[in-house]
Specification:
about 260 residues; mainly alpha; two-stranded parallel ribbon; 4 strands; about 60% helix
């Protein structure tokens, strides 16, 4: 729900900037169908936990870990492909900016051109350069957002695999449980896909240790803890969608648009 919320913010912001509903299709983003496959793979452990939970915990949770690796691998392939595509696009944008500046310097100045015409042309040239600069910066920020998304996913995958497919959670969570019987059950790993951080936990600093009460409406069952990697993924996803819309529609900032 947290990821869906951040993705929605990115789409709404992009729609408000462009006022082009078609931009929400993200037509220039490659391999979008991989996202559907990743969602399916990510939901399978929860489905199996209801239908046949024993199969998930057999042989050191091998099936659970395999599904986690497959889901994250699909997403990482999607990120890598689009990252390289966006790097090439950003390089082209910067090259266009440099080329425009060089052409303007080499352009001959004709004496017969009226002063008013020269002034108007100069303003148009400046607006064009600033618009190209805005697009180039946006394209570069999109590359950074994709890198952040990849780092977040990679960290999230590492934590899960190192802990047999189980997400470590803060021991402070037990303070939110009023029933001591339930608290003792949670301490003894009664939760599905989560376990309290202890001495055996690997990479505990990347577990769900950040208390985010204001985001509880976006978290399952009122759970108020998120991890650093989940926060990075959510924010990167929001900026990936927003900047993709901005770059692909070649939108100009409001101060560079032509006045009527």
């Amino acid at each position: 729900m947290l990821y869906l919320f951040c993705a929605s913010i990115g789409m709404i912001a992009g729609l408000l900037l462009t006022r082009q509903p078609r931009c929400l299709l993200l037509e220039k983003t490659k391999l979008l169908w991989l996202l559907l496959l990743a969602v399916l793979l990510s939901s399978l452990p929860h489905f199996l936990a209801v239908v046949n939970p024993e199969i998930l915990w057999q042989d050191n949770n091998w099936l659970l870990k395999m599904l986690i690796v497959l889901a994250h691998s699909v997403l990482l392939v999607f990120i890598v492909v689009n990252l390289f595509s966006r790097i090439i696009k950003a390089v082209y944008n910067w090259q266009d900016l440099v080329r425009t500046g060089a052409d303007n310097k080499k352009a001959p100045k004709r004496k017969e051109v009226a002063e008013a015409s020269k002034e108007n042309n100069g303003k148009k040239t400046n607006k064009q350069r600033y618009s190209q600069l805005f697009t180039a910066i946006s394209a570069s920020l999109l590359v950074i957002a994709y890198i952040g998304l990849g780092i977040g996913l990679g960290t999230h995958l590492s934590v899960l695999i190192q802990n047999n497919g189980i997400m470590p959670i803060s021991a402070d969570y037990l303070n939110d449980i009023s029933d001591p019987v339930i608290a003792e059950g949670i301490r003894n790993n009664a939760l599905y896909f989560k376990q309290i951080i202890d001495d055996q936990t690997i990479m505990p600093q990347f577990g769900q240790i950040i208390r985010a009460e204001k985001l509880s409406f976006l978290l399952p069952d009122g759970f108020v803890y998120i991890s650093v990697s989940e926060l990075i993924i959510a924010l990167s996803l929001m900026f990936v969608i927003l900047l993709t819309i901005v770059v692909d529609t070649s939108i100009r900032p409001f101060f560079l648009r032509r006045s009527k």
